[in-house]
Amino acid sequence: MAVAERMNATKGAILSLLTDAYQRRDRVGLIVFQKDRATLVLSPTNSVQLAQRALVNIPVGGKTPLSAGLLMSAEILKRESYTHPDIEPLLIVMTDGAGNVAIGKEQSPNDEAYGIADKIAKNDIRSIVVNMEHEAFDQGLARLLADHLDAPCFTLDELKAENLYRTVKRGMVG
Questions:
Q1: Residue 123 lies in domain
Q2: CB atoms within 10 A of CB 137
Q3: Listed residue (32, 40, 93, 36) closest to 60, CA to CA
């Protein structure tokens, strides 16, 4: 039940951001990473209607291929920077930070994700991490990911749609 409430708040925040992006002619994309892969469920767009359709059935729970999600994000942001050089990217990662599926076999899932996060930070991509873990079970993994992304990390208490929206808006300015 709490996960469903958090997901509803997240969806509300994403729609608020997209509405604002549409008004400012920005673009928003959405990648879901679950099971053993990352999936682009919304290519970067400023269409509120497309986002609403993409958000309807976002899956929650299960395995977390964090590396795959970060890698796909980096690739899409790179492509978007070539296609739209006038738009400054902002990566928002909503996760508990517990990657448990690696792309390769050389590193642990989290170490692999941290390496990709380090590369994203070195490319000066502004990021925000929203810790989706319940406070009672938080192991600090989202905070570690945020450190590797050189990004702020916000908690579930700040995940209400209006608070997340304001937080991300501040991040866009900064």
A1: 2-169
A2: 8
A3: 32
CB 142 within 8 A of CB 97: yes
Nearest Cα neighbor of 51 from 77, 31, 80 is 31
CA 61 distance to own-chain centroid: 15
Tens of pLDDT, residues 133-167: 777 788 899 999 999 999 999 876 665 655 666 76
Q: Flag whether 174 is in a domain.
A: no
The CATH number that applies at residue 70 is 3.40.50.410
pTM of the model: 0.81
Residue 78 lies in a domain: yes
Helices (H), 25-108: 48-55, 66-83
Q: What is the CA radius of gyration of the chain?
A: 15
Look at residue 152 and tell me if it is in a domain: yes
- Residue 38 lies inside a defined structural domain of this protein: yes
One-letter amino acid of 35: K
